[in-house]
Specification:
The protein contains 15 helices and eleven strands. By secondary structure, it is an alpha/beta fold. The protein is globular. Bound molecules: magnesium ion.
């Protein structure tokens, strides 16, 4: 029985993880949940799963949840809050596995603490790896615990890498749907609305990641994530647009063989893979190969997707530039959704923040978070 910590339990990855626990009660149970701001959902989850600890974003929300649990006669669930609360969740002595799915860098401390406590981590949060990948992978190596990618592309790569040695890797090919604007005429990009950008062709996801898919900044973050997770250089990672989102990614080996991973577009599959690794439990997530008529691949165009170019540039510089790429994007996406900047303003803002970012390599989580705050402030100043 693996006792799970779910950081980000009320988000879509968190809920999918709980549906896996529901399906495999003999394999998994819930030790603790970090639930953020959704008290209603946190209450329902606490009642259903009876974790030992639940963490909410603020003291006020934690107080509200504690009162509701008491009123409902639910005992034995400790309610904590804030960053310290997420760390309590992720380092719980009885926990065996941590699913890191808090969006943004707010899950960073808890993820780092989990690795230092010797707990294997299933990582759905790419921002952590982009901002602090060197620190997290060093902690994992030091404690000899795996970081198992839940991001579908990296999960696919992880699977394809099981058949070859590290020095046999030629290229890691990350596939991308290309988003809703793959064929939109370039002169219309400036007038793209949030409503248009929020319609993703193949995956149903959160708001920021959906916009990041439309700009392909998401794929850029994944390039950086791949470099860190698999210890390869940016020149060993390439992106291929694959509108069907059926091949989740590929690994090309030095002998010319290319291995691909194909499955349904359902996040429960990579979550189950990470939870069960190195086993493969039987699941009902079957893929209908006979229904697959064709697979298309095309090279992405950096003129159409300037965010992707910026990400490769940041990947080469590493450190503060990767942190700034992620931080500036989050601020710019919020501004776009609030109709304060045009769609094309997202890449412009990131490019200007990167140009203002001195090259440095923060070595601690607090230095990473400081660089993150600095980049956010610079982005906010540029948008006003
Ligand atoms: Mg992905």
């Amino acid at each position: 029985m693996k006792r799970l910590v779910i950081l980000g339990s009320t988000g879509s990855i968190g809920q999918s993880t709980l549906s896996i626990v529901e399906q495999f009660p003999e394999r998994y149970s819930v030790a603790s949940l970090a639930a953020g701001r959704n008290v209603d959902e946190a209450f329902a989850q606490a009642v259903r799963w009876r974790p030992r600890v639940v963490s909410l974003a603020t003291e006020e929300l934690a107080g509200e949840l504690a009162a509701r649990l008491k009123q409902a006669g639910v005992t034995g669930v400790e309610v904590v809050h804030g960053t310290a609360g997420t760390v309590v969740c992720s380092t719980l002595p009885e926990a065996d596995f941590v699913v890191s799915a808090i969006v943004g860098v707010s899950g960073l401390e808890a993820t780092h603490a989990a690795l230092l406590a010797g707990k294997p981590v299933g990582l759905a949060n790419k921002e952590c790896m982009v901002a602090a990948g060197e620190i997290l992978t060093a902690a994992a190596r030091e404690r000899n615990v795996p970081i198992l990618p839940i991001d579908s592309e990296h999960n696919a790569v992880h699977q394809c890498l099981r058949v070859g040695a590290h020095n046999e890797i030629k290229t890691i090919w990350l596939t991308a749907s290309g988003g809703p604007f793959r064929t939109t005429p370039l002169d219309q990009f400036a007038s793209i609305t949030p409503e248009q950008a929020l319609k993703h062709p193949t995956w149903v996801m959160g708001r920021r990641i959906t916009i990041d898919s439309a700009t392909m900044l998401n794929k850029g973050l994944e390039v950086i994530e791949a470099c860190r997770l698999f210890d390869v250089t940016p020149s060993q990672v390439r992106v291929m647009i694959h509108p069907q989102s059926t091949v989740h990614s590929l690994v090309e080996y030095v002998d010319g063989s290319i291995l691909a991973q194909i499955s349904v577009t359902d996040m429960r599959l990579p979550i189950l893979y990470a939870l069960a690794y190195p086993e493969r439990p039987a699941s009902s997530l079957t893929f209908d190969l006979a229904a697959l008529k064709h697979l298309d691949f095309e090279q992405p165009d950096f003129a159409r997707f300037p965010c992707l170019r910026l990400a490769f540039e940041a990947a080469e510089k590493g450190g503060a530039h990767c942190i700034a790429l992620n931080a500036a994007d989050e601020v710019a996406v919020d501004a776009f959704l609030a109709r304060r900047i045009p769609f094309t303003g997202i890449a412009d803002t990131i490019e200007r923040v990167l140009a203002l970012t001195p090259e440095s390599h923060p070595e601690t989580i607090s230095a990473v978070l400081e660089a993150d705050r600095g980049a956010r402030a610079r982005a906010a100043e540029l948008i006003v």
